[in-house]
Structure prediction request, 329 residues.
Amino acid sequence: MTDMNAETVVLGDLADGRLSGATAELIALGRKLGGPVAVAFAGVGLESAASEALAAGADKAYLLNSPVLAELQTDALVAAFEQLCKHSSPAVVLVAKTPMGRDVGPRLATRLGVGLAQDCVDLRRDSSGTLIATRPVYGGNALAALAFSDARPSIVVVRGKVYPPLAPDPARKGEIVRFEPKLDPSAVKARTVQFVRREAAGVRLEDAAVVVSGGRGLGGPEPFGMLKELAGLLDGAVGASRAACDAGWIDHSYQVGLTGKTITPNVYITVGISGASQHMAGCSGAKNIVAINKDANANIFKEARYGVVGDWKKVLPSFIEAVRELVKS
Ligand SMILES: Cc1cc2nc3c(=O)[nH]c(=O)nc-3n(C[C@H](O)[C@H](O)[C@H](O)COP(=O)(O)OP(=O)(O)OC[C@H]3O[C@@H](n4cnc5c(N)ncnc54)[C@H](O)[C@@H]3O)c2cc1C
Prediction:
């Protein structure tokens, strides 16, 4: 029997010390499920993130403080969240599909002996209140609906950019609860030796309103220069198919798709991309797809709102010129 008053706990993630976009999305999802929503932050100096979480729609923020959590190592995080779950007995734990979430979620489920659904793109309650998670399977060609056993909590790892965050309301009030897990420093088997920040110019791929992606049809790394030029004119970001990344033409951090990034731009321009289901799994939330491909039968044209059947070498330069003129005027 589902207890609708039991909490949904979101495992909070920070970005530069602030509430991450992924966590704000999960708070919005928690509200949609009904019942109180709490966010659990682990580490040190978490007060401002807690206030941001309340403004983003949470009813409560748990602050898990311990010097052992300072480096946010998985071993320490799993132990801390395990103790919190045993203490607060949430109905649902929501985890973002981030490097942290993918690491912590399954280990937490194993420790608690409960079920976990990975890579979910939807989560809802059916008419009886049962939680149903949906995840793509068979390379994005089918969707599986998963129900959980009664073991509490149900742990759900959710893809990014599926639920829009709520508009922050700084006047929203909520509870801040300090929780001090008992952590054994010797249980932390890994150490962070160095953080290396990737220098990124322009808009982040995941946040861009316009994305211009290139695939195997580009034939090499050089044409990505033209894609960057077009993306720059449109204040957008560059992406790529896995084939282009695997060929070493562009770094894997640009990959869009099932095993790459999920994006939801207003306009997604693809150049020399066939539109394989694994690629589309990462961009099906794009509002308008524009395809340039020389094969009229390419799958991408089934998904695209606008398309040009032609060689990108002929199409792209005049397309860029037309955009340049338009943005000038
Ligand atoms: C488990 C798994 C996970 C995967 N994850 C991902 C993922 O996250 N992201 C991803 O992208 N793929 C992923 N893939 C790979 C995916 O199946 C495809 O192989 C890949 O997306 C193909 O990339 P592509 O469209 O660039 O290349 P292709 O399929 O080779 O298509 C190239 C296209 O370029 C066109 N073309 C060629 N020359 C020109 C020209 N001069 N002008 C215009 N058009 C031209 C061709 O007509 C063709 O349609 C995954 C596969 C598996 C099995």
The first helix runs from residue 21 to 33. The chain has a mean pLDDT of 94.
